[in-house]
From TrEMBL:
Catalyzes the formation of 4-diphosphocytidyl-2-C-methyl-D-erythritol from CTP and 2-C-methyl-D-erythritol 4-phosphate (MEP). The record marks 15, 22 as: Transition state stabilizer. GO terms for molecular function: 2-C-methyl-D-erythritol 4-phosphate cytidylyltransferase activity. Its EC number is 2.7.7.60. Gene3D superfamilies: Spore Coat Polysaccharide Biosynthesis Protein SpsA, Chain A. InterPro entries: IspD (IPR001228), IspD/TarI (IPR034683), IspD/TarI_cytidylyltransf_bact (IPR050088), ISPD_synthase_CS (IPR018294), Nucleotide-diphossugar_trans (IPR029044). Transmembrane segments: none annotated. Belongs to the IspD/TarI cytidylyltransferase family. IspD subfamily. The keyword Nucleotidyltransferase applies. This is 2-C-methyl-D-erythritol 4-phosphate cytidylyltransferase.
């Protein structure tokens, strides 16, 4: 039962401010992507990591992987990404060898996910779940609104019961055939799917949630960089 991790890292990261593609920004001197690759390779189950690079950045990413010490038991492949996260994940799936039967999809933007979280996702897939998502309960109450112009008041449509909501993280784990089928059969409009498990739900296959971890947060805004560096400093202390 071989498991691969696909890491979509082709996003520009505009919400983080101007500069290099988000995955290539440094956290404590090491690119976020390298932290994310190490987090996947830290799991003994993961034998292959497929990095989906910015469309014109594959050679640069190959160099980066060569420069940093990575576990010998893990293979690495770099492919160029697409316009949307969904397209980038699809290109990663297309690069998988036949021997792979389970796939993790992990955002480069979640560089600090602990190995125990990765392993619990893999374990649930191995035990037979076609799709597994790590997630946490919400601190904030969430409202559904009718989106208006930026900054303008927006009418509230509903307030889902907070106790039933979960904020989902990555790595999301899948039976390979299920995820490939979702990417082939599910049409997603607009900017594409932001969540692979959501595409599996649309296939009608069951998706389960396992406990996520605070340190699996997504680095999206400038303040998240501060938090990520604080987490790394605490780990080293
Ligand atoms: O933009 P967001 O934070 O939702 O991106 C999530 C992940 O998807 C990031 O790791 C980003 O690099 C990746 N992505 C991608 N290809 C795109 C857009 C986003 O690989 N076209």
């Amino acid at each position: 039962y071989r498991t691969a991790a696909v890491i979509p890292a082709a996003g520009r990261g505009v919400r983080l401010g101007p500069g290099a593609p988000k995955a290539l920004r440094a956290l404590n001197g090491t690119p976020m992507l390298i932290h994310a690759v190490r987090a996947m390779a830290a799991s003994r189950h993961v034998s292959l990591v497929v990095v989906v690079a910015p469309p014109d950045g594959a050679p640069e990413v190959r160099n980066l992987l060569a420069e940093h010490a990575l576990p010998e038991r893990t293979d690495f492949v770099v492919v160029p990404g697409g316009e949307t996260r969904q397209e980038s994940v699809k290109r990663g799936l297309d690069a998988l060898p036949d021997s792979i039967s389970a796939v993790l999809v992990h955002d480069a933007a979640r560089p600090l996910v602990p190995v125990d979280t990765v392993d619990s996702v893999v374990d649930a897939v191995r035990e037979g779940a076609p799709a597994v998502v790590p997630a946490l309960p919400l601190a904030d109450t969430v409202k559904e609104v009718e989106p208006g112009a930026p900054g303008a008041p927006e009418p509230v449509l509903s307030t889902p019961v907070r106790a039933r909501l979960r904020a989902v993280q990555t790595p999301q784990g899948f039976d390979r055939d299920t995820l490939v089928r979702a990417h082939e059969q599910v049409a997603v409009s607009g900017e594409g799917a932001t969540d692979d498990a959501g595409m599996v739900e649309q296939l009608g296959a069951p998706v389960v949630v396992v406990p996520g971890h605070e340190e699996a947060f997504k680095v999206t805004r400038p303040l998240d960089l501060v938090l990520a560096e604080a987490v790394l400093a605490r780990r080293r202390a």
